[in-house]
Design brief:
The protein has 79 residues and is mainly β. It contains one helix and six strands. The strands form two sheets. The chain has a four-stranded antiparallel beta sheet with strand order 3-4-5-6, with no helix packed on it. The chain has a two-stranded antiparallel sheet with strand order 1-2. Bound molecules: zinc ion (ZN). The site of zinc ion has 7 residues, from loops.
Protein backbone atom coordinates (compact mmCIF):
# COMPACT_ATOMS: atom_id res chain seq x y z
CA UNK A 1 0.00 0.00 0.00
CA UNK A 2 1.50 3.31 -0.99
CA UNK A 3 -1.28 5.85 -1.24
CA UNK A 4 -4.53 6.58 0.62
CA UNK A 5 -7.00 9.43 0.31
CA UNK A 6 -8.15 10.54 3.75
CA UNK A 7 -11.79 11.41 4.45
CA UNK A 8 -10.69 15.07 4.75
CA UNK A 9 -9.41 14.94 1.17
CA UNK A 10 -5.70 14.87 1.98
CA UNK A 11 -3.60 12.44 0.00
CA UNK A 12 -1.42 10.28 2.19
CA UNK A 13 1.51 8.32 0.88
CA UNK A 14 4.50 6.56 2.34
CA UNK A 15 6.75 6.89 -0.68
CA UNK A 16 9.04 9.26 1.15
CA UNK A 17 11.34 7.40 3.51
CA UNK A 18 11.36 8.40 6.26
CA UNK A 19 7.92 9.96 6.30
CA UNK A 20 5.60 11.39 8.94
CA UNK A 21 2.58 9.38 7.83
CA UNK A 22 3.36 5.83 8.86
CA UNK A 23 3.59 5.06 12.56
CA UNK A 24 5.31 2.04 14.03
CA UNK A 25 3.05 0.89 16.81
CA UNK A 26 3.84 -1.93 19.20
CA UNK A 27 2.25 -2.80 22.49
CA UNK A 28 4.56 -2.53 25.47
CA UNK A 29 4.52 -6.32 25.73
CA UNK A 30 5.45 -6.80 22.07
CA UNK A 31 8.26 -4.26 22.44
CA UNK A 32 9.51 -5.99 25.58
CA UNK A 33 9.68 -9.30 23.70
CA UNK A 34 11.53 -7.65 20.81
CA UNK A 35 14.09 -6.06 23.14
CA UNK A 36 14.57 -9.19 25.19
CA UNK A 37 18.17 -9.75 24.16
CA UNK A 38 21.62 -8.37 24.84
CA UNK A 39 21.76 -5.92 22.00
CA UNK A 40 19.20 -5.02 19.42
CA UNK A 41 19.98 -3.76 15.93
CA UNK A 42 17.46 -1.81 13.86
CA UNK A 43 17.25 -4.62 11.26
CA UNK A 44 16.30 -7.08 14.02
CA UNK A 45 13.09 -5.22 14.83
CA UNK A 46 10.14 -6.99 13.22
CA UNK A 47 7.44 -5.15 11.31
CA UNK A 48 4.61 -4.10 13.57
CA UNK A 49 1.44 -6.20 13.57
CA UNK A 50 -0.62 -3.33 12.20
CA UNK A 51 0.16 -0.76 9.55
CA UNK A 52 -0.86 2.56 11.11
CA UNK A 53 -1.18 5.79 9.11
CA UNK A 54 -1.84 9.27 10.47
CA UNK A 55 -3.24 12.12 8.42
CA UNK A 56 -1.14 15.24 9.12
CA UNK A 57 -4.09 17.53 8.34
CA UNK A 58 -7.06 16.16 10.33
CA UNK A 59 -5.06 13.73 12.55
CA UNK A 60 -7.25 10.76 11.65
CA UNK A 61 -5.61 7.42 12.34
CA UNK A 62 -6.04 4.54 9.90
CA UNK A 63 -5.20 1.03 11.03
CA UNK A 64 -4.53 -1.65 8.42
CA UNK A 65 -3.88 -5.32 8.77
CA UNK A 66 -0.82 -6.53 6.88
CA UNK A 67 -2.23 -7.12 3.41
CA UNK A 68 -5.59 -5.36 3.54
CA UNK A 69 -6.37 -2.33 1.41
CA UNK A 70 -9.28 -1.13 3.51
CA UNK A 71 -8.62 -0.11 7.11
CA UNK A 72 -9.85 -2.34 9.91
CA UNK A 73 -10.13 0.71 12.21
CA UNK A 74 -10.35 4.47 11.67
CA UNK A 75 -10.02 6.99 14.51
CA UNK A 76 -11.09 10.62 14.26
CA UNK A 77 -9.97 13.33 16.64
CA UNK A 78 -12.72 14.09 19.17
CA UNK A 79 -11.53 17.55 20.14
ZN1 LIG B 1 -7.25 13.80 6.95
Amino acid sequence: MAKVVCSCGAELNNQEAPNNIQLRVYTDKEWDEICDCESIQPWMIPEPKYDVWKCPICKRIYVYESDSFSPIMVYRLEQ
